[in-house]
Amino acid sequence: MFKFKNFLENENTKVIAKKEGMRVIEYQTDLSVSPMYATTAYFANKMNVKKRQVLIEINDNEYTVSSGAMQWTVGNVQMETGVKGAGDFLGKAIKGAVTKESTVKPIYKGKGILVLEPTYRHILLEDLSEWEGGMVLDDGMFLACESRVNQSVVARSNISSAVFGGEGLFNLKLEGAGIAALESCVPKSELIEITLTNDVLKVDGNFAVAWSGTLEFTVEKSSKTLIGSGISGEGLVNVYRGTGKVLLAPVNGQAMDQTHGSKTPENAGGSAVTNAAINGLMGMLK
Known about the structure:
The chain is of the alpha+beta class. The protein has helices spanning 38-46, 86-99, 159-165, 226-232, 253-260, 270-285, and strands at residues 13-19, 22-27, 52-65, 70-80, 107-116, 122-127, 135-137, 142-146, 150-155, 170-175, 179-184, 192-203, 208-212, 216-221, 236-248. The strands form two sheets. Strands 1, 2, 3, 4, 5, 6, 8 and 11 form an eight-stranded antiparallel β-sheet that branches. Strands 7, 9, 10, 12, 13, 14 and 15 form a seven-stranded antiparallel β-sheet that branches. The longest helix has 16 residues, at 270-285.
């Protein structure tokens, strides 16, 4: 038996999304800030730069979490590495290297509450049963999912998509029934969902944050000829072809992460997380 106070019922916290056992908690005002950053924190808050956390209710089921993401647990919650031996560890290390995800993703099970580290990125809760053929993620988006979800690495259909597409050669794919928590550079309200039925989507830049595993991704000329592509000013474009969905952000997520700095400072408490994020914001204002 356990109880906790001054968290969900705190007037400064708000549950902004919930799906099955996962809840996204948002701090309405950042109170863990040093005086020298108070002015920047005030205006950052006005632009929706807020701390967010994922709370997971574990009820005799299992959740897989990005390495280092756990902040605290309460109840009969056990953690396993999910590594079955040296060979399995090597395979996970290779998979993590090519997808820019953590090598080992701990598995939490039992009965209790698991709360993840705060982040200033936006958190998406996705029902993977709504993604035919699975959901392919942009690099570094995975935060947590139900362990019944299958994780695999998918390669691009051609080398050109890796060399010219700005996406990398491999991506993590989540497939099956279950809920996943993903970190996004923009909120859900700004993501454009495009559904294709035997059609084609062309994107000039790295703006797709996720797409259906049923879609073929390539990089192609914007015009029929290289000269025409050069004259148009568009050059090469990312092409998603087939039947499925694509989530598009209005900004380049990887460029935003590089500007802001670390998306979630590891092993940081409230004020450290706040000050690190505000340092990144101050760098943007210089």
